Amino acid sequence: MKAHLGIRLLLVDDEPHILQFLELGLINEGFDIRTAPDGLSALEIAAEFKPHVAILDIMMPGMDGFEVCRVLRDEEPDIAVIMLTAKDEVDDRVKGLSLGADDYMVKPFSFEELLARIQARLRNRFPGLLGEVRCGPFRIDGRRKEIRFRDSVLELSPTEYELLQYMVINHGLVLSKPMILDKVWGYDFGGEENIVEVYIRSLREKLGDKEHRIIRTLRGAGYRVDLL
Q1: How do strand 146-149 and strand 152-153 relate by DSSP bridges?
Q2: Which domain, by its residues, includes 50?
Q3: CATH code, 156
Q4: Last residue of some domain: 107, 125, 143?
């Protein structure tokens, strides 16, 4: 719990039972929580509370999550935004990401997955808040921009560091090439998707992962890190 002390989360949803469920779980993890039942209240709270992460439901009366995301991104450029929706629509994901959302989750979801995604967003935007993160044989030190594997420091380029950090923090999840390009290279990257394969190959060599047991390739889907 101590790892999350001082980290501020804003939860925005018009369904009271969802707010209560998330609030209780995240308070138990040590986060400082504020909740809002609608978009206007969320913006008022955010202006004073200055959250590190906002978790926004899309479908709300009045000001929807998309508009809240747009305003938050304009007023609080450092905030990380995770959007929630009851439907898995590609157009919604594209719209949310284009407005500055960092992540997107479809209801129903597990609390453990939400927690992992919050930690991933914090690691990307506020690397000093979590200190050192341990994931199986990996230790990620965001302050030193350093990753240890089985107690040995990996010699990584800045892009290799960002890629491996992203994949390890999201271990167990299948990450497609477009997802990786968006998170590591940026949504406006104009190069070829094959650049991901080049960096994956380099990381496997540095990890001694000849049999691809750590960074797995899932044909037609993407890549997944498995912690051994």
Answers
A1: antiparallel
A2: 2-125
A3: 1.10.10.10
A4: 125
Contact (Cβ atoms closer than 8 angstroms) between residue 222 and residue 180:
yes
Assess whether 99 and 152 both reside in one domain: no
Q: Say which CATH number the domain at 23 has.
A: 3.40.50.2300
Out of 106, 125, 144, pick the residue that ends a domain: 125
What's the Rg (C-alpha) of the chain?
A: 18
121 and 136 co-located in one domain: no
| Structure-token pair, residue 74 | 């304009």
| Least confidently predicted of 165-169, 206-210, 212-216 | 165-169
- Interatomic CA distance for residues 57 and 101, integer angstroms: 12
Mean pLDDT of the chain: 87
Handedness of CA 171, 172, 177, 178 (dihedral sign): negative
Q: How far is CA 213 from CA 2, 165, 179, 218, in A?
A: 33, 17, 21, 12
Average pLDDT over residues 128-134: 71
pLDDT tens across 73-109, in order? 888 888 999 998 877 666 766 776 777 788 888 888 8
pLDDT value at 6 more than 80: no
Give the residue-averaged pLDDT of 188-212.
90
| Domain tally, the chain | 2
Given a cut of 50, whether residue 2 has pLDDT beyond it is: no
Q: Which residues contact 176 (CB under 8 A, 6 or more apart)?
A: 221, 222
